[in-house]
Design a protein that fits this description.
By secondary structure, this protein is α/β, with parallel strands linked by helices. It is 46% helix and 20% strand. It has helices at residues 33-49, 68-78, 98-116, 130-135, 144-167; strands spanning 24-29, 57-62, 83-91, 120-127, 137-139, 142-143. α3 links the parallel β3 and β4 (120-127). It binds ligand DLZ.
Length: 168
């Protein structure tokens, strides 16, 4: 029988690589800003906790989740980042665009990661209603911003380790 996990952001801090030498970009959607601000708080504090220097974290805001991939692309083109985290919240009941936005953003983020050969993290809540979003942005089911930051640290570390081992 599987165990039901209620806090989706639980992790073992000892297993997380240090972010000491990393530069991380964060792109945040202004749509549903009470939620996305909490995701940002979770992601930012997690990066700091794991050693990323404050001056090596850049935060940029975009109007909505649909603009997250474009914002991330700009960050790679005009800045130097080991990973970019995209944070947004799309709520199904509130938009007929739900499927279009979610599919477009997920596909564009995945494609951008391939094109840039760098992690681009999908920190976008796609929920049925506002309560589910609250529960996943610092509520009873954790904070997706924390998960996004942990994923960025792991993937950036993997890329740099592989790059180093191949250079040997
Ligand atoms: C237009 C729109 C709607 C209806 N709902 C959301 C939402 O729930 N979450 C979100 O992040 N953005 C939403 N947007 C805005 C779109 O993402 C985008 O900013 C606009 O369509 C302009 O391209």
């Amino acid at each position: 029988m599987t165990t039901k996990k209620t806090n989706l952001s639980e992790y073992n801090p000892d297993m997380i690589p240090s972010g000491k030498d990393l530069r991380i970009g964060i792109v945040v959607s202004e749509w549903n800003s009470t939620i996305t601000n909490s995701l940002l708080e979770g992601a930012y504090s997690t990066l700091i906790k794991h050693g990323v220097a404050d001056e090596n974290i850049t935060v940029e805001h975009v109007p909505g989740s649909f603009e997250l991939p474009t914002g991330a692309k700009f960050m790679f083109k005009y800045g130097k980042y080991d990973a970019v985290i995209c944070l947004g919240c799309v709520i199904q009941g509130e938009t007929r665009h739900f499927d279009f936005i979610c599919d477009a953003v997920a596909n564009a983020i995945a494609q951008l990661a391939m094109d840039e050969n760098r992690p681009v993290i999908f920190g976008v809540l796609t929920t049925n209603d506002m309560q589910q979003a609250i529960d996943r942005s610092g509520g009873k089911h954790g904070n997706k911003g924390v998960e996004a930051a942990i994923t960025a640290l792991k993937m950036a570390d993997m890329r740099l380790r592989m790059k180093k081992s191949i250079a040997k």
